[in-house]
Amino acid sequence: MGANSTRNRKRMLQESLKASRPENMVHPEERLLPAEFREKLRRNGLVGGALPLFVSTHASYPSGYVISLPEASGGNTLCEYEAYTRDDEGHDQITRMPSPTLWGKTGSWNICVWEWVPGPGPGDFTKKQMSLDEALETILSYFFDPNNEHFKQAELTLQEDARATLRSSTAPPWRIDALLRAAKVREMDEIYPPDVPNDEPDRFLRCQDALHLEFVALVDRAVAAGWRTDEVLTTIIELADNHALMLTANADLEAALSILKKRP
Predict the structure, then answer these.
(1) Tens digits of per-residue pLDDT, 63-106?
(2) 2, 101, 132, 162 — which has fewest CB within 10 A?
(3) What is each CA distance from 107 to 30, 31, 97, 131, in whole angstroms?
(4) Confidence of residue 178 (pLDDT cuts 50, 70, 90)
(5) What is the pTM of this model?
């Protein structure tokens, strides 16, 4: 899905530029999302309901809206999926889920997720909805229900792709197992514990594997908040150094206090 997602994001950018032309800014009234529906999207942490992304004459999605789930809003996430979306205030946001397209008119709405080229592929779907309430229910289920059938199809496919990529690598089997376990535990917002003795030569590398996904997620959240990547990485290094110095100072203090206590 990675290469397909890249092509889709380029296509969406081209559509956005095309839609911003003055001659394409006019849309039939019955195709526009009402203010109350846009507010429901906003209250659920979703973006993309302000203006149509696709032009009114688009062959597949006339006056179509692209609805996105920013990472900061929580909800479902797909392994290795990362894209950027723009909120209604014009700020870039990271999203880790494909963005459904919503289009139609009163009494006949359509929702489509189409990530695979050609498609449809695992997780892709197109649904007709009689009302915007039904459309909202479908969108919220896709973004927030971990048991949503389309999300699960995409999730299982991407996880299997990741396993296949790892197994075709030259990494030792124990490290492949560690990375897969880290990815699985990451879904539960936990860090997997050490499973080797303290004197194991590869223990340090295993610790890196256990923390890697949490580290990447921390960097992504900081960048999404507006910090530059170089600022974030430099800050993490400084924090690590300062924390190490603090631990060393505390150990020295405890050793000195221990000596004093032993004196008569």
Answers:
(1) 899 999 998 898 998 877 888 887 777 778 888 899 999 999 87
(2) 2
(3) 10, 10, 27, 6
(4) low
(5) 0.57
